Amino acid sequence: MDRRDGTIFLFLSVILLSPLFIPAPSSGVPLDDDVDMAEKAPENCIPSPRATQTHSGNSPMMVGEVSTKKSNGNIVRIEFTRTSNRAIPDGTIQLRFGSFGNVTKAEGFSKQSDGIYNWDRSADPWIEYRVNETHSEPNEIDLTNQANGSQIVPLPAYGGAVQVAFEPAQHGYLGSRFAYLGEYETRSIQAGCQEITLIIPSNAELVKPPDQILNALNETAYRLPVGRAYDHVRVFGYPGDLGDVAGFVRGTEYGVNAGPEVIIEDQAPLGGPLEFTWRHEYIHTRQSFALTSELEWVREASANYFAYRTALDSGSISPREYDALLAWNHGRNYAKQLANHSDSRVAYVWGPLILSKVDARMQSTTSQTLLDTFRWMNHAETDREGITLNQFQNHTLRETNHTTSPPPEFNLTQAITTTEPPKPAYLRGPQWLPAEIREFWLPVNIRFLRLAYRFAGILWLVIVCVNIAEYLGLTIEK
Ligand SMILES: [Zn+2]
Fold first, then answer.
1. pLDDT digits (tens, 9 = 90+) for 392-431
2. What is the distance in A from the centroid of ligand 1 to the CA of 61?
3. Is the pLDDT score of 433 beyond 50?
4. Residue 425, SS3?
5. Ligand 1 center to residue 248 CA distance, Å?
6. What is the pLDDT of residue 37?
């Protein structure tokens, strides 16, 4: 081996062996290491009642026991019994079934109008309803596709002068508008004034260990100083296929205030190219804003954008991986307009690109970030119609001191009517670097690349050892 060969040999060795000394989980460096977690914990939580309680908080006069029919798990039965000998006051129990339940049979309940039933005060009333697939825009949700034995069922809203509460007839866990019936386990984590509980059906196979999922949700909770936090968020793992979506939060399917309950497929990705579904759904529980139809895309866009952002800020993904996610989104060309929300994929995929630009501009010109806009939206006084595009635009402009001529990225009117994917604000590398190259750093790809690189390193080590052995005059027995 001459001198030149030796140099090349040494150079190759350094390149190929270096990955062997990088610790395996190093996915990147958190941008902000000195985050004061305690200051950003959810505060001033609002109550999230459960169906196991009466509205007044007093003990119920009647209890409805919830079960499913053995012959058909999609038929739910609620049987009411008196809980004491106290006189029942005048009035009724009213049950209101949303789009998830369709009453099939009842005794002691009479129909008032579609989906609304009143107790007629006869003894031992009961009601049965079928679990429905919803047909509400933008996504259909199907609760009937459950792995055998598992029962996540909708519960009716209840009211009236007669105070009621619900209980599972056997085993089960009741949230506010959904219940799991069957054997289960719960795991919880505390984030400031908020408790996050994961309800794990016995036949669910979670995509990651429960603690890892709760940690990701906790990280998200600590990085969203946007107000509006429930004191208890309940996350139901769903062992099956929910249809168009991998998860949903009660309320958002009608484009209104999100409730405190998340239903999510047990195999939903904790971090993937399109969605960080668990973080995404949690973020919905922190949205209390109403939006006009032209701005409705911001609901899904902000859930996705802050899912990436909180993953980045907590060090779960590196800046390059964050850029890769934006690049992946940029690479999907739907030739649709954001203003036309009929294809919601556009909102999920292009929305974060626009928000990344608005956020970058806010951060570079003021001390405000898009989180401040999120908080403003949560508390803004708006009419019933919700926040308009103009209000959103004016607010972000005001915060960036561009009251006269808005920079192009703030021209949201134009941004949402284009059919070209908007260019995001990347964090690393030249802005012109093609999306196809940035996509290599997707968390999925990077894991594969790192593995391949390591394999090459090990192979090289073997070659080097064999060469040294030969050089020292040893022979390898064939
Ligand atoms: Zn969503």
1. 888 887 766 655 555 665 566 666 777 788 889 999 989 8
2. 38
3. yes
4. coil
5. 6
6. 44
Q: Cβ neighbours of residue 152 under 8 Å, at least 6 residues apart?
A: 143, 146, 178, 179, 180, 201, 236, 238, 263
What's the gap in Å between 371 CA and the centre of ligand 1? 17
Please, which residues bridge with residue 282 across strands?
Answer: none
Residue type at 53?
Q
d(CA 134, CA 184): 26
Q: Is 273 exposed, middle or buried (0-12, 13-18, 19+ CB in 10 A)?
A: middle
pLDDT class for 103, splitting at 50, 70, 90? very high
- Cα(230) to ligand 1 centroid in Å equals 18
Is 273:294 a contact under the CB 8 Å cutoff? no
CA of 283 from ligand 1 middle (Å) equals 8
Q: Compute, in angstroms, the gap from residue 289 CA to the centroid of ligand 1.
A: 14
**Cα of 280 from ligand 1 centre, angstroms:** 6
DSSP 266-286: TT--SS-SS--HHHHHHHHHT
User: Model-level pTM?
Assistant: 0.85
- 299 C-alpha vs ligand 1 centroid, how far in Å? 7
- Do 250 and 152 meet the contact criterion of CB atoms below 8 Å apart? no
Ligand 1 geometric centre to CA of 438 (Å)? 25
Cβ–Cβ < 8 Å for 117, 110: yes
- pLDDT tens digits, residue range 11-26? 877 776 765 554 443 3
263 alpha carbon – ligand 1 mean position (Å): 11
**3-class state of residue 346 by DSSP:** helix
Question: How many angstroms does the Cα of residue 153 sit away from the middle of ligand 1?
Answer: 20
DSSP states of 379-400: H----TT-B-HHHHHHHHHHHT
Q: 401-408: which pairs have CB atoms within 8 A and are 24 or more residues apart?
A: 401/365, 401/366, 402/365, 407/361
Distance of alpha carbon 304 from the chain centroid: 8
Reported confidence tier of residue 38, pLDDT bands at 50, 70, 90: very low
pLDDT digits (tens, 9 = 90+) for 181-210: 999 999 999 999 999 999 999 999 999 999
Q: How many angstroms is it from 260 CA to the middle of ligand 1? A: 14
Compute the distance from residue 303 Cα to the ligand 1 centre, in Å.
6
Tokens at residue 359, please?
């956020």
Q: In 10 A of CB 463, how many CB atoms?
A: 13
Is residue 397 within 8 Å of residue 406, measured between CB atoms? yes
Per DSSP, the three-state class of 463 is: helix
